[in-house]
Write a structure and sequence with these properties.
The chain is built from three helices and eight strands; from the N terminus they run βααββββββαβ. It folds into two domains: 51 residues; 76 residues, no CATH class. It is of the alpha+beta class. The strands form two sheets. Strands 1-2-3-4 form a four-stranded antiparallel sheet, covered by helices on one side. It has a four-stranded mixed sheet with strand order 7-6-5-8, covered by helices on one side. 41% of the residues lie in helices and 22% in strands. It is elongated.
Length: 153
Amino acid sequence: MSTPPPAGLPQLPVTFRPTRTRIVLLSLGAALFTVLTVMSLTLSTLTGGDRATFIGTGLLFFAALAVLSRPKVVASEEGVTVVNLATTRRLAWAQVVRVNLRAGDAWVHLDLSDGTSLPAMGIQPGVAKQQAIADARALRALAEAHGTGSSTT
């Protein structure tokens, strides 16, 4: 049985992701795929190869937008998993020294105990700035409660 989190901390595991951005990207990808597929099927001047090219292009657009919607940050009892566009990195809480989201930053940056910094694209203020600030503060509080972390927001 898990113990309840201290006051103000989210229940673990918790996933942070730019939900509005994700909805926009996946909706746009689905719409592009649908439009290109319908166009390929309704244009009588297209050959079979042309139709396949239209549909393939729609699938490529959808796949590219799906990759852009991939980022997330998952916090669990064991640590933090940062999923960016092409990479996934698992960190123990003790490795997260600081959680940063400064004015003008495109996403949160995690300062790590080895002296490096890791972008955490799953928390980004682009479309939902207040939500990103709240998520960054929650991740900072979790890092402070579970490890040696501190932050600037």
